[in-house]
Here is the input.
Amino acid sequence: MNIPVFCSFIRRKDMDTVLNCLVTDSVGPGEYLERFHKNSKEILGYDYGFALRSPYFALGTALDSLNLKEGECVAMSALAPPYYASVVASRKLSILYVDTEIDSPTPTAECVAKAIAEASLKPKAYVHYEALGVMTDPQALRELGIPIIEDASQSLGGYIGEVRAGAVGQLSFAALESGCIITAGGGALVFTHGRRDAQVLRNQTEDIPSELRMTDYNAALGMAQVKELETIIGKRREMYSIFAQSITRTRHRLISQAGDGEPGFWAFPIALSSGMKDVRAYAKKKEIDTEPAFDNSLLGKGFVPEGACPNARSLLLRALLFPLHQRIGAAGAQKLARVLATLP
Here is the structure.
């Protein structure tokens, strides 16, 4: 039986929470959404936040809170999800694509500063996408002097120094889609740790129609999962450590986070030293599914101009994802560790 790269881990008590919601006949945003807001705030430690029906709306809400004007520019990683481009275009903004370091998927402050220095139109905001759960120096990012929107979808639960994922930007959001560290079956959280920005978000909450807010059905599942965040992270951390030891026996390299801290354990990413086709074929033969890390990115979908962002292009060709989720189980983890240790 194949081990998939992503698999939402939903337990019986998660289903019980959703079933309890179903019998209340509460379909739209209501009591369960409010309880999800309360639990998320307590566990993630932010000042204020609310849940929407998709990360698309979450990014749009964060951008709207900055009051950007038509024609202004937003900087973002070339490896960010392709829906970013649609959100920006809908607000008639332009994009400054930011390259990464040669072996790290998340732009550092130096990468952003270099892109800004070379740009004809200076960005008014930077969307900091923490790709593959990898965080970078938050203080250096803040010293850029422009508003930061942090996408902690893949880094949730990670930290660098004393800063947790979601606390880097003035505004932050995290997707809760299928395969995310926490899933609500769809949707996203938008939140902030700052009091001034919290008031801005509160004001925006009043204008967001119910059709864009997360439903009680999704909130019920999200509520059950967010309560188990530490347990979820703990199990993924254990497997990550085992897999990291296995990959050291090969010529390939783990894509990891520099500095004091740990990444978000979203998947197990490696940078290949040989052809991706051969490695994927070998893993498939051993019943292990894999996915190219950045095929579904702005760069992978052709939004980034040809010749721009060379380091990100290198990662596009070399970065491969292996499974890292609770459904792998003990036997599956042993099997996956053996495969990783013997990759061609």
Summary: The chain is about 40% helix and 15% strand.
